[in-house]
C-alpha cells in the first residue's frame, strides 16, 4: 500500500484518457514547413553575408596593394641623394638617378616601368660597362598600362589596372 501511494503521488497512477493529447498531422506539417522556411531564409542570409565579407576583404586587399605601390613610387621619387629624375614618354618609364653612400662618383639608377602585367622597379649600376641589372622588385601586379603624360612642364604617371581602376599621380 505504501508503494502504491508513493507511485500515485508522483502521478504515475492516473487514469488514462481515451483521447491522447498530442499533435495532429496537419500541425506537425505546419511546424516543419515554417521551420524549413525560417532555416532557408537564415542560410541565405548567412551565405550572402559571407559573400559580402569575402568581397570586402578582396577590395580592401586590392586598395592596400595600390596604396603600397603609390607609397613606394613616392618614396623613390622624393628620397635623399637623388641627382636627377627623367620621365621618358616614349618608353613609358621613369629613370631616377641617385648617389650611393654619399659618394659623388658612384651613381645608381632605378627604373620604374611596366614589365608584362607587373609594375617593377629595376636597380642598375650606372656608369658600369654593362649597366648591369642588380635587382628587380615588383611594386604592383595586374597592371594593364603604365604611361607617362606630359602637360607643359609637369609630368604625370598613369597606372591602369586590369580591374579598370586608374591612378594618376604627378611626378
Summarize this structure briefly:
This protein is 36% helix and 40% strand.
What does this structure look like?
- The protein has 171 residues and is α+β, with helices and mostly antiparallel strands.
- It has a domain at 56-170.
- 36% of the residues lie in helices and 40% in strands.
- The chain is built from two helices and eight strands, in the order H-H-E-E-E-E-E-E-E-E.
- The longest helix is centred in the N-terminal third of the chain and has 53 residues, at 25-77.
- The radius of gyration is 36 Å and the shape is rod-shaped.
- The chain starts with a helix and ends with a strand.
- The model has no long low-confidence stretch (mean pLDDT 83).
- It holds the Pfam family N_methyl.
- Keywords: Membrane, Transmembrane, Transmembrane helix.
- This is Prepilin-type N-terminal cleavage/methylation domain-containing protein.
Radius of gyration: 36 Å
The tally of helices reads 2
Task: Output mean pLDDT.
Answer: 83
Strand ordering within the main sheet? 1-2-3-4-5
Q: What are the secondary-structure elements, in order, as H or E?
A: HHEEEEEEEE
Helix content: 25-40%
Low-confidence stretches: none
Q: Strand count, sense and closure of the main sheet?
A: 5 strands, antiparallel
Strand elements, count: 8
First-residue to last-residue Cα separation = 104 Å
Strand content: 35-45%
Backbone structural class: alpha+beta
Q: Which of globular, elongated, flat, extended, rod-shaped describes the shape?
A: rod-shaped
Give the secondary structure arrangement, pairings included:
Layout: H1 2-9, H2 25-77, E1 82-88, E2 93-100, E3 103-115, E4 118-126, E5 133-141, E6 143-151, E7 154-161, E8 166-170
Antiparallel strand pairs: 1-2, 2-3, 3-4, 4-5, 6-7, 7-8
